[in-house]
Amino acid sequence: MNGSEALIKALADAGVDTCFANPGTSEMSLVAALDKEPRIRSVLALFEGVATGAADGYGRMADKPALTLLHLGPGFANGAANLHNARRARSPVLNMVGDHATWHLELDAPLTSDIRGLATPVSDWYGVSESANDLPACGVRALQNALSYPGQIATFVVPADHSWDPVTDIDDTTVAVSAEILTDEHIHLAADALRNNTRGALLLGARALRREALLQAGRIAAATGVRLISETFFNRQRRGVDVPVVERLPYFAEQAAAHLEGLELIMLIGAKAPVSFFAYPNSPSILTPEGATLHELASPHIDALNTLTRLADALNAPPLAEHVRAPVRHKVEEGTIDAISLGQLLNNHIPKDAIVSDEGATNGLAAYLMSTEAEAHDWMTVTGGAIGQGLPLSIGAAIACPDRKVIALEADGSAMYTVQALWTMVREQLDITVLILNNSAYAILNIELNRIGADQVGETARSLLSLDRPDLRWSTIAEGMGMTASTVRLNSELDQALTNAMAGRGPCLIEIILPN
Amino acid sequence: MNGSEALIKALADAGVDTCFANPGTSEMSLVAALDKEPRIRSVLALFEGVATGAADGYGRMADKPALTLLHLGPGFANGAANLHNARRARSPVLNMVGDHATWHLELDAPLTSDIRGLATPVSDWYGVSESANDLPACGVRALQNALSYPGQIATFVVPADHSWDPVTDIDDTTVAVSAEILTDEHIHLAADALRNNTRGALLLGARALRREALLQAGRIAAATGVRLISETFFNRQRRGVDVPVVERLPYFAEQAAAHLEGLELIMLIGAKAPVSFFAYPNSPSILTPEGATLHELASPHIDALNTLTRLADALNAPPLAEHVRAPVRHKVEEGTIDAISLGQLLNNHIPKDAIVSDEGATNGLAAYLMSTEAEAHDWMTVTGGAIGQGLPLSIGAAIACPDRKVIALEADGSAMYTVQALWTMVREQLDITVLILNNSAYAILNIELNRIGADQVGETARSLLSLDRPDLRWSTIAEGMGMTASTVRLNSELDQALTNAMAGRGPCLIEIILPN
Fold this sequence. Notes:
homodimer; alpha/beta; Rossmann fold; 3 domains; seven-stranded mixed sheet; 18% strand; globular
């Protein structure tokens, strides 16, 4: 048995069952080892950003990491933007990066690269094996770190000689996972704070937005009248008719500030203190209203369900409510599709237990707002602001949850970043419906350009923010990767296309032409 | 005038005339400034790897840097793989990276990222402006470093507040460029070494492969019988009928070792000591033959033309030969296209002064070997082993040299990495003919898997190295981005398609179906 084989066996023994890969020459021994391990599903991505984004989606839905297989520094760098997002999502991800043989590094061959330098800015943990014998233990140490509640990015490097050298002695390794919980005193102080504030809100993030956690938050709201607000961009939120309704903190700083205005208490559970996404010349970046108390109860690494349950109990909150309401269906007017009708139609068609990967940008917000009373579903967002996450994320979710319909709500500019994802959806026959919101522009940037006061926009600025000349024909691009696709302009066409997509299984793409 | 405007003006004053951009919110003030600067052509890329690879191609052909405009750490990371390649190519590249306003950083908003950490592994120089007043000087310092002979990757960060704050006082800044030259003693020692070795070779890299330098190298070869060998992967090499023929060091370690066997002297001019690209279990990584002398005459930052000219003169080499031979045309058999016939046809059709961007991988080598006696042209390769470089590189070359035909020779797997490049070619109406070598596989990796002795390849390994199921239909993908495209299987079809492409102007794509 060589180092690769021992490593892959150890990871499979510890429960790793999925690997998103784009290997190169230095990883051939790892590929050969994966070839012999039937417990791990190996999925090829045609670009590393697809592999890392898919691992994020898998981690969000499975609550355990998928493996990625990446090729030295440049392969890692190609996946780094979506690892930045995954780190902000606090997803568990386990990156396995091949490197040159140890003796080859000092020769500075063309692919020699500072993997540590590139990896550490987007990794919570980084390690390199010491030898072939150490390789399985190194992988399991990384796995242990990836599983640190609620999830971390763990990256380990496999020097090629460690991958192909024979293993003579393997250390025993085990994986144990647990989350920290708060002391009783913290819980009672928080309960007192909620009792003494009539104008309070729980700001919820990370695992506080899962269904069981939201049901407990609902008890607290029922007992105290506290508002339930989610982070703007979250890992995964349960929504629809089987959970209490949660407000979402708006994106733009002034809207977010207005949303929080009048609050006397903001209690953080799994979320960080609210700040604006970007800075603006004459606008405050800190969003907590002046005079309000910011109560940092439970950081994301504290068990959120435990916190909310004990807090509800401490408040003598009523028992769990029946959160099974009837879904609301919107009536949709005839005519061409706009952001509103798109949101209405998506709401009407979301099937029970669907997973939505939302990278819809300017046109995605209405869809979120209009699906509060849809069938129960999970909603995932771009957590770190690095676009190109939505399509890969949907791949990981579909592989983690093969029995659930996945809907990827994608802005055209964002989709183009990791367009290679379409191919993997077809290769793996994943049950993903991709909705491309084609408005031929980085529309959000046109808004931002106005916000900084740049008037009189000229041809150069316009050209840098538009996606026309030539128009992207998404149906054609998708067909080039073997995906069934259609283009719709009318609400009636989208209605029919969604009916077909939700009734069927497997990958398909609906290109939705929207006003610029 | 704000910081952005002062910066862009200073860069334009110093000769910067091209910017490859994918901006985000934090760069809107820079976009507004570019909008007002007619001396800089701003080119939108739909993915940052396209922007940085294009800057590399521009730098190789223009010998001065293009600007890139990138969005914080994730935007930089998306461009890092091609910056790794550009750094290995010693191209001049000037990266301008937007960051949050300085006061916003400590709030750790979602896009906050360790730009320094991500940038330094692929940058030769890194800086951050101190204030709006310092911003123009910071940009010019970066430019000065990018221009350091033969070229460097210089990255500077623009905090958003420095971009929008008013400028009250601008430091004078100037740019001066010069290259180091060798002492007379170095030249004479080298001349002695060449006189005393009958079995010697010049190993040429970086700017030693330009036309004027190769003509001088030809004088030295004529005087001493020394062999002229190029690095395996080089920035840009003049080839065809107006320069002496140069051998290219083979890629695989054992072939490269065989190629150098018997040499008693290897003299480096602009090249590094030859080492294998990858390490293998039972194969030496150092390629200099045992007993041979490695004479490290001139590192890449020493003026190569100066070195070669003075060395030729010291050897009393004959004056410049007439290197204008008649191009050779290969006779091509009828039948389906293979690597050989592809190479023959490409040779026959390369127009005078064409630029070839070669990322053809396994099927590209024959094209190189068969075009030694083609019309005079420049050939660019993937210098750092990070695939996804060829299409962006061709964009930069086409913008630097609008009057020269550019041919992008692209393996299917590599092309998919930065497929977004096709759109920019259409947007800018660049005179690029893209040849996609579609063999439905990462064929090089199938070879490498065999080389490590992995026999009995199973379904998983096969799936990780193949690009079938579904097949990529390149013509369709290109049409989805507005590009004229065709698919050819027969030599006669490729012959006709190349005739049409070379006769016309503007972007087009020819998908060449090759055996797996």
